[in-house]
Amino acid sequence: MKRVVLHAAFLTIILLAALSLGCAMFSPVDACGAFLKHIERGDYAKAYSMLHSSVRYDEKRQKSVEAANKQQPETTISKEQFERRYNAIFEALKIKGFSFTLLSATEGDAICVYDYSLIYESELLDLEQMRFRMVLRYEDGRWAVEWHPSLILPELDWGDTVRISSLAARRGEILADGTVYAQTENAISVLAILDKIEDRAQFLRQTSLLLNLSQEHISRALSSAKGDYVLLKRFYKDEYSELLEDELLLIPGISIDKANFGTLRSYPQGESLAHIIGYVGPISEDDLVKLTGFEEGDSQYNIDSRIGKSGLEASYEAELRGKDGKMVYISAPDGAVKKVISRVEAQDGLDIELSLLPKLQSRAEALLKYTLYGDDTAGAVVVLNPKSGAVLAMVSYPSYDLNLFSRGMTSLQWEALASRQNAPMFNRLTQGRYPPGSIFKPFTAAVALESGAMTKETAFPQSTERIEDDKWLPSDSGEFGPWGYAAITRVALRNRHSPLNMHNGIIDSDNIYFAYASLRTGETLFSELLQKAGLDEAMPFELPISPAQLKNTDTSWTKMLLAESSFGQGEVLITPLHAAYAFSAFANNGSIMEPYFIKGFYHTKENRYVPKELHKESVWKQDAVSKDAVRIIEPMLKDVIVSGTGQYLNLANVAGKTGTAQIGSDRSREISWFVGYRLNTNDPRLVLVMLELPANSEEFSRVKFKIAAALLKEEQL
Predict the structure, then answer these.
(1) Which of 100, 189, 241, 382 is most buried, most CB within 10 Å of its CB?
(2) Class of domain 437-452+523-712
(3) What superfamily would CATH give domain 2-158?
(4) CA atoms of 631 and 714, how far apart (whole Å)
């Protein structure tokens, strides 16, 4: 044999000439080029026809092997196997073509060896230039390719398999001050290795019993397999035991993997922050199209993916999800990784750090849980820092265990949860819109002051307007006549402060005084100044939040609607979270800070935990309430706690307001409010409590004060 070194320019001429001849060729270099061109064009039948007889498993050879009752020789391949193998590998790697260059040749009369380089064009991977060696033998008047799997990939051997493994990005955690609320853990995966199953019927019986899956389900999974293994089930660590593993591994065809076949989402705090954290669940067809634009999905999402379905898990799916990587490798017959062809590392999702104080959060949840009872009670609590805008704790009660959704629940569990009267899955913090009742009155007072309609000394004109049996029917000949509406009613008090001015109107929470104030202000200034405070729009927040409203969009202002709105009834609606931030204007010299509860997004970089993005404090509503109005009203709010309707709080250095609003056509339900904030402190804190209760319920009459007092105390939580 002679060694021939072929220069690039000369080789190009030879290959072009050879390929133009098609199959009518005699030289070995022509045969080499033609074989590669057939493969590039996807004409695998013609390529197979060029194989040497020693590797072809044709019909004649098949009959002789079957006659001898033997198996197909490992180093042979049939036409169907040949086409299927090239198709499978090229489709899996998304190879659209390739370019090759002949490097050198060693030629003889019977055997020729050609070395060439080749670069695959792949949409999936950036495959490097690879070096191949093709052997041709002279047989029956032609040069035939002594084919070997290494002509597909250099390290590929008989019995080897090319696999593409998705390197799953680890979903980011959700945590606060070291307490983890949502985390990702490696799944314990039970796999069926198809060619290791000895007795399918017995396999189905045994795995069905141990995995608690129907035989029909397992059979369908085996029949629809696209590779040589099937994932049967994933377990959480606490669902799995060594005994179960020992029993599973006794079944031929079962394999257990604890790191490489996906992850599972768990919620260590169970019910805590359930409405805010949200949960991960199976992707729907609509989700798939929304996320990818395609019904079949893309490289990041497919019909088997799990995505955020509610709360933070849904709103920050992109940040938490990360980006999956890919590994293409050659797998030996025993399943071992023989050679990594290409690897694109996964980019793990970002962790979300919350502004919440976990101990304070737990305290707030416990207070609601252990002071309310029965399916006819519910509520919400918000604790925030009015100087920074940070949420320190927030609770929607009742709650539910997020792990029920992430792990899957029975139909009975779902029915029990969904049928409860107090709707545990409803997020009262951000979606529940309620009449604010008397906690709205300080805003009416501020509007009256800012508009110039009232001063703090302005008193209700009892000399010209009569109040009888705690009702005021404006005189037809008076300032607001003719009236033409029902009387305005106030809550009866045993001891009412007088005179009926702004101070006493606030501490006694007198509906009549604030109806008078709004009527003097007038509908235009009343609505304009309240809109300035954000009380007729959606509040910015990291989660969707229902907008506050002063009235329905299709309603026109009337004198009665204006009067009822002044004390937080009429058509005024607001979420507990929005109400807390609105009231924070009185605790922050009139301005409302931008609400937030995500401190930042973090990731690991070179073994360091570093911030990717941090929240920057800013003002949402500058002078939502004028500084002069705050200076006048804040002492009144303090006196609400000292000698007014908030006395049951029994705390010093707190300013606040109580409120009650009846709801329902029969007025059988009521919304009970308290909102207050610390005074003269280096640790600013505002607490809002909203309870849904049976109307006029004595047993729950002081619960809001107990909850608020516990959260406002100067304890280090």
Answers:
(1) 382
(2) alpha beta
(3) NTF2-like; domain 1 (3.10.450.100)
(4) 24
